[in-house]
Structure to design on (128 residues):
């Protein structure tokens, strides 16, 4: 992928933020003494955007939404009721003709941990 990709993670419960330059983000944390790993990877190839979110741990992860948008226009969204069963959530979207070129790309994952805590992972980048 040409351009740059900024990664921003926010855990809304504790207000923790991690910022890095990478097309992949992997977050590891511990809740109730259980390790939890959440990862998001984004690949842009031609006019396709493919994003995959995965999960590893024993905590229940539900209400997961993975979405892609370019310049505040949603180009695709995927929803999973409980990704702790399938362990991943995949989104594939086609970039519309009018949104190709040097535009801002945002991939976001929103989840609910044990039906108590909300967490979000956002990857921000520039196409082109």
């Amino acid at each position: 992928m040409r351009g740059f990709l900024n990664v921003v993670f926010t855990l809304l419960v504790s207000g923790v933020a991690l910022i890095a330059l990478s097309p992949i983000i992997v977050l590891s944390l511990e809740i109730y003494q259980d390790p939890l790993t959440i990862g998001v990877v984004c690949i842009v190839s031609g006019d396709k955007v493919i994003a995959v979110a995965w999960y590893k741990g024993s905590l229940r992860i539900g209400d997961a939404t993975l979405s892609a948008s370019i310049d505040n226009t949603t180009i695709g969204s995927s929803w999973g009721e409980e990704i702790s069963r399938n362990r991943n959530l995949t989104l594939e979207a086609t970039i519309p003709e009018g949104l190709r070129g040097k535009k801002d790309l945002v991939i976001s994952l929103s989840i609910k941990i044990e039906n108590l805590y909300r967490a979000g992972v956002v990857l921000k980048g520039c196409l082109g």
Notes: The chain has one helix and ten strands. The radius of gyration is 14 Å.
